[in-house]
Specification:
Two copies of one chain form a homodimer. By secondary structure, chain A is mainly α. Chain A is built from six helices and two strands, in the order ααααββαα. The first copy, chain A, binds a DNA duplex (30 and 30 nucleotides) through helix 3 and helix 4.
DNA sequence: AGTCATGGTTGTATTTTGCAACCATTTAGT
DNA sequence: ACTAAATGGTTGCAAAATACAACCATGACT
């Protein structure tokens, strides 16, 4: 009797697993769409901030803007990029006056990279342009629904991140 | 009187807009995290399918696997990639026996690209490995919640696409 | 002090990309 | 039906991005 009950419970768990797998498949599907879409828009947004910016430099800059000052090696880690490549991109961004570098007081080897006010202004303009572009489309969405989606993604991010 | 009432209503709309802006900012924050994370894992997954696969060829292959056969120019559009670049990647994938090409019956110029059974098997193995990796972490999530997130993303994708 | 790890720069070879020219085929205009 | 323009695809070429390794300076650990 008890054995049969355990079988039923195990079947329930299995069925739940299958449904979860399907749900995850659907989620990955949407993430893929999002990824492709963002990838398409990346070059445009980068150009909007500065015509000289390429598809690698822009995400680095955006990361510094969003998460605050970081070291070059942090960026290399975040993007799984060669530190040599990061070094060159950093020099480009310095040349464009989009980031600035200050010595790390805690570590004589390192420098802290932060966005300049120029970059902040450019990014703000870009965000504003995007907001106007999407404003009409998003107007049908209640802020609560958007929050809900953001929170769901946050949970998902937490789950999949080490 | 009526003028005052309209002012109040307009104020409500403005306040809603501000809240929506904040919500969108939060959403973009999470999307950024997600994309960075996915980007980091991309190379690994590509290598899991085939060691020769680079970070560009894999998304193309995955797209063919998910959305079915497409023409090279479709892929170029989807990824905003130069058609020359796509052409070369396609040849690599053909060489690796991961995709196959058949003439388009509707258009003498075009070819239809589709994944081979070999690629399907490799992709299935990769998905399985990922599922095992995330299985434990996702086990705390009810399938309904995952579906909810996927549907939210789907709506968002629909909103921001063309 | 001595060894090793880490942050960063630079040289070099390889890969990837974008642009343009080109061919074959299809579509549009008249 | 005939020409002109557009589209799918390949290839050559030059510019760019990247990985890899060597290297220097600093810091951490023993």
């Amino acid at each position: 009797m008890i054995g049969a009950m355990e079988d039923v419970r195990r079947d329930d768990v299995r069925r739940d697993d299958v449904r979860r797998d399907e749900a995850v498949r659907g989620l990955e599907h949407e993430i893929g769409r999002l990824l492709r879409r963002v990838r398409r828009g990346l070059t445009d947004r980068a150009a909007q901030v500065d015509p000289e910016l390429n598809a690698t430099a822009y995400p680095l800059l955006a990361t510094l803007a969003e998460f605050g000052p970081h070291r070059a090696s942090d960026l290399a880690d975040m993007f799984a990029l060669d530190k040599g490549a990061v070094s060159r991109v950093v020099h480009q961004l310095l040349e464009l006056d989009l980031i600035e570098r200050t010595p790390d007081p805690k570590d004589g080897r390192a420098s802290i990279l932060s966005v300049t006010s120029k970059a902040q202004a450019r990014l703000a303009l870009m965000v504003e342009a995007r907001r106007e572009e999407f404003g009409a489309r998003l107007s049908g969405w209640e802020p609560e629904k958007i929050d809900e989606l953001a929170q769901g993604l946050a949970r998902f991010n937490a789950v999949i991140s080490d």
